[in-house]
Amino acid sequence: MIINAIEDNIFVVRDDLYPSLGGGNKGRKMDFIGSKINKDGLNAIVTTGGIQSNHCRAAAIYAAQNKMPCTLVIHGDERRFSKEGGNAKLMRDAKATIVFTEANGISDAMDSAMDLYKSKGYSPYYLRGGGHNLEGGLAYVEAVDELLKNSKIRPDYIFLASGTGSTQAGIMAGISKNKIDCNVIGISVARESGRAENIVRESYEDLCHFLNIEPTQKSTTKVLDDYLCGGYEKYNPGIKELSENSISKYGFPLDTTYTGKAFYGMLNHFNDKKLKGNIFFWHTGGFLNYLAQP
Ligand SMILES: *Cc1c(COP(=O)(O)O)cnc(C)c1O
User: Fold this and answer.
1) What's the whole-model pTM score?
2) Cα(274) to centroid of ligand 1, in Å?
3) Domain 3-23+132-292 falls in which CATH fold?
4) How far apart are CA 267 and CA 30, in angstroms?
5) Which of 111, 118, 195, 239 is deepest in the core (most CB within 10 A)?
């Protein structure tokens, strides 16, 4: 695990450099989910996401590596999907079966794909969008162990881009497991705070229950929606500028959908609140989103 110091008290956890399945948090989650697929003897995958979904890309590459068929239920425009680079290209080139649907047709389309695999004699794995399940969270409990092994500096704050919430929940559970005092703050990329916090809290409690650890972070679950800019894939001029200057200024990419939004939110939040202590930014990936953005 690589950690870059960008200021005396600001550190960046480079999970964008996670080495397999195209990297980032979806690569890390999918590796963990893959062990479960393997252990349970399953041999096909059905999952869902948007046109530039990092999760669908990781799932499609995992399936290709393991020679199993994979169906991706994509909500979004078919023409845009066939033209775009980045994750869309990797999904096409992994030769996943793609089913397009409206947002309200996702669960029906996933059920049909599951039935189709079963009718052909497969044992398919139903994978929630974003890799949002127990294994996805457990991947991040382990990642915190890895961070603490690799860094002598203890984090007082960890900031990250929060979407489905399992990365944040896993980090919170990792902090509880290691009995350290640290505020984990999610910057929401799509949902309003109340809903986002409920989902993170729920996943966190499931993880604590599963691992039999004290849920020390439960009452401080925090996901900020001040930087949503109207929703998923939306951004403001400040985020755009930060993204465009990220390589020259920091030497790593910050995309406008995930990590740029979160990094922008982090800088604003700790300036506003005059936070003191060691601040860790958990860089969750998004390089392919960065490359695909205008
Ligand atoms: C999916 C994603 C997130 C959010 O992770 P969740 O576990 O869904 O909250 C953050 N950053 C990047 C780059 C992602 O692809």
Assistant:
1) 0.96
2) 26
3) Rossmann fold (3.40.50)
4) 30
5) 239
